[in-house]
Design a protein that fits this description.
The protein has one domain: Up-down Bundle (Na+/H+ antiporter like fold). The longest helix has 43 residues. With 311 residues, it is an all-alpha fold. It is built from twelve helices and no strands.
Length: 311
């Protein structure tokens, strides 16, 4: 359990700093959207490019990793759609928030956990797994918005724009391309990427703390509980089953399971506002899950440590 505490303490500390700075109006309000843009569009893609282009990844079991992370995501997506008819009182707008709350994952928290627990190896595995999930999750979420809200313009067009505009997907693609084609990154540029990548996770976690909305903490408790069970119990369990079935173990399996045990992504709120979802419910789910994760993740780390032999 001390390993879990040591890995989680810096994450909790940075989120708390962001929360405190926002609540005390230490900075101008305009700073926070700017920091979110800097983190999401610049620093995180640079981290992914740097990690994926500079590490040896030829030996990685690509197909098994893709299946181990995408099967749980597809399973819970199907579960939400199959259960939709049992909750006729839930509006189409609210359903899109429930769907995102149970399908998406927090890349920032996942990479921070992987780095704290397993160092560079965990970050590489997490980046690769994230790349596979981000594309699929965007496809599922855009399709859900389009079918639920009957948006105009076509699923493929909307999905294509979201993928092209998604900096995390582009960071993964660039990093993997450089690595697979053995294109060397100039030393000066690689050093710059290294410096910037070190700043990416701290700034990202500070913005997560600033975005917490405590006024909505007690709203939609029954729905939040059901979504939380899917997010923090079902998804990591399915990931563990898939890792076992596909022969993944050690740091690889542990990292993938932990990624699927993280709270939903803050970017869910942005997508909800852009596409006409229930963004207030989305803000509630993000806040509730982010705070609850600091109870659930230590337990998940402990369970993983009991089941999976780690170096």
């Amino acid at each position: 359990m001390s390993i879990a505490i040591n890995a989680l303490a810096p994450i909790l500390f940075l989120i708390a700093i962001g929360c405190l700075l926002k609540r005390t109006n230490f900075f101008e309000a305009a700073l926070w959207p700017a920091l979110e843009k800097l983190s999401y569009y610049v620093l995180m893609p640079i981290l992914l490019i740097h990690v994926l282009s500079s590490k040896q990844i030829d030996h990685m079991p690509w197909q098994e990793i893709a299946l181990a992370v995408n099967i749980p995501v597809l399973s819970v997506a199907a579960l939400f759609w199959l259960s939709k008819s049992f909750f006729p009182s839930v509006s189409a707008e609210s359903f899109t928030s429930i769907f995102q709350g149970g399908v998406r994952f927090n890349t920032f928290v996942g990479l921070s956990l992987a780095q704290g627990l397993f160092g560079a190896e965990g970050v590489v595995i997490g980046a690769v797994g994230s790349g596979f999930m981000i594309v699929l999750i965007n496809l599922l979420c855009i399709t859900t918005f389009s079918l639920s809200l009957k948006t105009q313009g076509g699923i493929l067009k909307t999905l294509g724009l979201q993928i092209i505009k998604n900096p995390l997907i582009m960071g993964c693609l660039i990093g993997l391309t450089l690595n697979m084609l053995h294109i060397p990154v100039p030393t000066a540029l690689a050093t710059s990427f290294d410096v910037l990548s070190r700043a990416s996770l701290p700034i990202a976690l500070i913005t997560v703390g600033a975005a917490l909305q405590f006024s909505s903490l007690l709203k939609n408790r029954s729905v939040s509980a059901l979504v939380g069970i899917v997010q923090f119990v079902l998804k990591p369990f399915l990931a563990g089953v898939c890792c076992y079935a596909f022969g993944l173990n050690g740091v690889t399996a542990a990292t993938l399971i932990l990624f699927l045990a993280t709270p939903t992504a803050p970017s869910s709120y942005i997508l909800s506002r852009q596409l006409g979802g229930d963004h207030e419910m989305m803000a509630t789910l993000i806040t509730q899950q982010t705070l609850f994760a600091f109870l659930s993740i230590p337990l998940t780390i402990w369970v993983v440590g009991q089941v999976i032999p780690l170096p």
